Amino acid sequence: MRATTRYDQRMLRLMNDPRHRRVHATRARRRGLVAAHVALTAAALATLAPLTGRLTDPGPRWAALAALLLLTAAWCVVTGMLNLATRGLMELRARVLDERQHAERGRAFVLAHRTSLGLHLAALLWVLLAYGGGYAEVSARTLAGTVLVLLVAHWLLPLWAAVLTARDEPDEPDE
Q: pTM (2 decimals)?
């Protein structure tokens, strides 16, 4: 087994910093963070449409790019808060996690992959119902957008599952 590096130790300290606890102390706050992250992710994906479309005027494209940059900055901050809420469960390397954290990480991945399977099946059903009658062909843009949304969801679901299943920490006694 490899020894922990300075990076591992620094990340472990950062993820366990007690100054950030109140942001994610309760289940309601963690749910709010996940909802904000889902909304920011959906908004960022939605702003990609004007960037890939056939626009003759560059104005909407520049506005979409500026919006995407702002959304990405906010998304990164909320992602950091989600990682803090799990004490780095999905961010830290496996060698610095204890047995309980390994088990929690495994449960989060199992829940995320089951949810991802459900999303994939729902998307497949949607495509079959919307375009399977033979009357209309699915466009490459619609198919690419659907695949992109599924890939992003598959990528982020483990983090969301870990945050949503995290337990409240016991209150610290006031001194």
A: 0.85
Cα(110)–Cα(98) distance, integer angstroms: 18
Rounded CA Rg of the chain: 20
List the beta strands (DSSP E) in the chain: none
Three-state DSSP at 86 gives: coil
Q: Are 75 and 41 in contact (CB under 8 A)?
A: yes
How many of the other CB atoms lie within 10 Å of CB of 53?
A: 11
> In angstroms, rounded to a whole number, what is the distance separating the alpha carbons of residues 90 and 96?
11
Q: pLDDT at residue 173 above 60? A: no
Which 3 state secondary structure label does DSSP give 55?
coil
- Alpha carbon distance 94, 135 (integer Å): 51
